[in-house]
Amino acid sequence: MSTTAQPPEPHIPSAGPAENEDEVTATATCFCGAPTQGPGLVNTFLCHCKDCHKITASMFSSCFTIANSHLKHIRGRENLRTFQRSHTIASGHTVTNNFCATCGSLMYRVSSGHPGISVLRIGTVDDFHLHESKLRPQVEVFTQSRVSWLHSL
């Protein structure tokens, strides 16, 4: 008897989705769903920098940037904590990580080198269909730190 694997259902955080979504109003939540942001897309990319290796506990991060004017905290802003880092950043700029105090999920990063822009993780976006379309990474950065077994886009 053969069975066809069904794609997994999207994870809905315990706090539930924030609102109805479309490409313009998609929301991003952490693992527990406490903090929720409403993004406005600027661009998408894979980052292979050594900081992203550590902060994601993976070999790259899949990201998108938004203008801060579009970063809307729908709920849970009081649940966000920050951690700043500058000595490991290749440019020497300071990067502020905003993460959920409850579950530890990184929600977004802000760099002093890119004023007015926030960097969010694609995996935080609640509408999984956008991962295959509008949020599909377009470029890679810090490719000199990409591991050899990982193919380019």
From TrEMBL:
What is a GO molecular function of this protein? metal ion binding
**Where in the numbering of this chain does the CENP-V/GFA domain appear?**
26-139
The answer, when asked if Metal-binding is one of the entry's keywords, is: yes
Protein name in the entry: Mss4-like protein
SUPFAM superfamilies membership: Mss4-like (SSF51316)
Query: What is the source species?
Result: Talaromyces proteolyticus
Spell out the PROSITE patterns in the cross-references: CENP_V_GFA (PS51891)
The record, for PANTHER family, names: CENP-V_GFA DOMAIN-CONTAINING PROTEIN (PTHR33337:SF8), GFA DOMAIN-CONTAINING PROTEIN (PTHR33337)
Entry keyword set: Lyase, Metal-binding, Zinc
**Family membership noted in the UniProt record:** Belongs to the Gfa family.
InterPro entries in UniProt: CENP-V/GFA, Mss4-like_sf
State the Pfam families in the record: GFA
